[in-house]
Specification:
heterodimer; A: mainly beta; 6-stranded mixed sheet; 11 strands; 55% strand; B: mainly beta; 7-stranded mixed sheet; 52% strand
Chain lengths: 112, 112
Amino acid sequence: EDKVVQSPLSLVVHEGDTVTLNCSYEVTNFRSLLWYKQEKKAPTFLFMLTSSGIEKKSGRLSSILDKKELFSILNITATQTGDSAIYLCAVGPISGTYKYIFGTGTRLKVLA
Amino acid sequence: NAGVTQTPKFRVLKTGQSMTLLCAQDMNHEYMYWYRQDPGMGLRLIHYSVGEGTTAKGEVPDGYNVSRLKKQNFLLGLESAAPSQTSVYFCASRDRGTGELFFGEGSRLTVL
């Protein structure tokens, strides 16, 4: 059965801390892994990863994929209160379909 | 720049009532999805569509029906609502080129 597991489920840090969020997956015929940030409403796109070892960066956020060990990490450096959100990881499209499977998300709270 | 629009944004139903959620996208995307989000469960796929006139089941399809009569619209129906269908529903569409999913702002449904 295809699945995506995120850890930790929740995390509380102080402004300025660095956090690492994890996403592991078990799917047949991996195509891509996506990270999203969800504040109050719609998830917003952060990164799409398809190749191992190539880091993607956007400001203080970065992400990398390991296709051998079947996981990805999302790093946030110098956290700010505006980083407080649920971070979602998804894998897809699943081979033979066009489905995307999401993990349960990591709820991050950054304290001032 | 509308993107993905969901209506209604909020709805309260009594057990046994029916309703339809509408998702409209203006990006000419072929693929559209309906997810539900419950606390601690992440996003779970209900149904999806790979083009006008086609639909397919996701992970949790029971109690829901869908239709895609026009490319830009994807409707999610509840024929006889149950309290277990209380949730936040998200519609998404997929960019065929990049594989990125674009989400609507969600529809909060409460079934009493």
